What does this fold into?
Amino acid sequence: MTKEEKTLIYDLLKKADANISGFTSDGFKGEVEFVDDAVGHEPAVVPDSTVVPDSTVVPEALEGPQSERPSTSSGPPDSSAATDNSSNTSALTLTDLYAKITRCTKCQLARTRNNVVPGEGVENPDVLVIGEGPGYDEDMSGRPFVGKAGVLLDKMLAAIELDRNKNCYIANIVKCRPPNNRDPEPEEQSTCFAFLQAELHILKPKMILCMGRIAGHKMLDTQESLNKLRGQIFDYNGIPLMVTYHPSALLRDQSLKAPAWQDLKTFKKKLDEIRSK
It folds into this structure.
């Protein structure tokens, strides 16, 4: 195969991946140089880049009809992508993502919701706060954490100098309210999780704070009890993550406020260390 044929196939794969997922996958970042097979060499890889992966995993929740996929010619280019104009792709924006979330009907929660509830906050947050899913107030307003639990969450964040309007972004594992505020089913979580992964890809927070058991279980892929998970610093793909009590639990049981405060102080200490670097 000639160098030109290999380059053409690589560019087509890269653009197709970006069209489907909405952003440049890690496997396609960097620059790859090919040579003719007749030369007898393997593809030469430019330093700090990656070769073509054997397969590309496409988040299922981000798939959709071709007409709904973002064009590779719109939006700002991904600064970490190859600099060759023929292979540049667009970065997925929060606006693009919100449009996808609003149109999603991939699980049964879409049939009972009043509003989809995407994330809310600043685009370059210090902290990504993750809950389990919308409740009644959130379902009616289309905003995350706005009911009684949301009011308490804002107070908890303020106690460690965090604010959804200044340095935080607040999201949920699922974007639609489960009926009667039941726990989201595993298949509902799996279907919706690609949206949260896309939010992480766009936001690149310094730390993650999981509110409650379900958020902690999904992010850490574990079934350990909340009491064993809370208060520790875990690693999520290079991002420090902590699990603590959901504000709703604190409203039901006042005795949990003291250990929750200890968690928040530990979280802030780690965040201050990261900020100081």
